[in-house]
Write a structure and sequence with these properties.
The complex is a heterodimer of chains A (113) and B (115). Chain A is mainly β. Chain A has strands spanning 4-7, 10-13, 19-25, 31-38, 42-51, 54-57, 64-70, 73-78, 87-94, 103-104, 108-112. In chain A, β9 and β10 form a beta hairpin. In chain B, β4 and β5 form a beta hairpin. Classes of the chains: A mainly beta (113), B mainly beta (115). At the A-B interface, β4, β5 and β9 of A face β4, β5, β9 and β10 of B.
Amino acid sequence: DAGITQSPRHKVTETGTPVTLRCHQTENHRYMYWYRQDPGHGLRLIHYSYGVKDTDKGEVSDGYSVSRSKTEDFLLTLESATSSQTSVYFCAIGSDIGDEKLFFGSGTQLSVL
Amino acid sequence: AQSVTQLGSHVSVSEGALVLLRCNYSSSVPPYLFWYVQYPNQGLQLLLKYTTGATLVKGINGFEAEFKKSETSFHLTKPSAHMSDAAEYFCAVSEFTGGGNKLTFGTGTQLKVEL
């Protein structure tokens, strides 16, 4: 299995509080992604990174920010959590050597009350 | 923009029966297509992928899919279902750009296998 660790695995927080989710990889892959999974919507791309300090928005980026200061870490921040951000968040990584598949972490279940 | 449509959010089959999960895609460029499987409380793992070449693609656990350009389809099949196949399956199309391989997923199909 690809070395991807997401933390925390579960989090419950209150509306209006800031939340940071962490994705850590040991594969030295260039690309990292944050997706959210919701019933009836599948997985949707929030933000992605194509290198240290290089990030861009995905399909559902409103209310989220990201940072990547090291190759191995990709942080997702909810500046002021809302109930609509209750979801399962998945991190994925991909290499730049022509292999198109992504490897996914085990997910973070976030509940915003 | 690319998109994927998975027909049927829930599919139920008997053990030993054929599994057919449907996926249609929309893409303005030649697509890369994927099937991922998600077991309960786990992340997604790749079943199979189509990039170029042979249109019949074989994956893990006895699954295969056929890319049909004329029908814009990439249906997933398995000749004989096993109880361990019960999971959620996602079809995805990718856009490989400077930002890497950004996947657009379908809404998923939950496969139930009954005795």
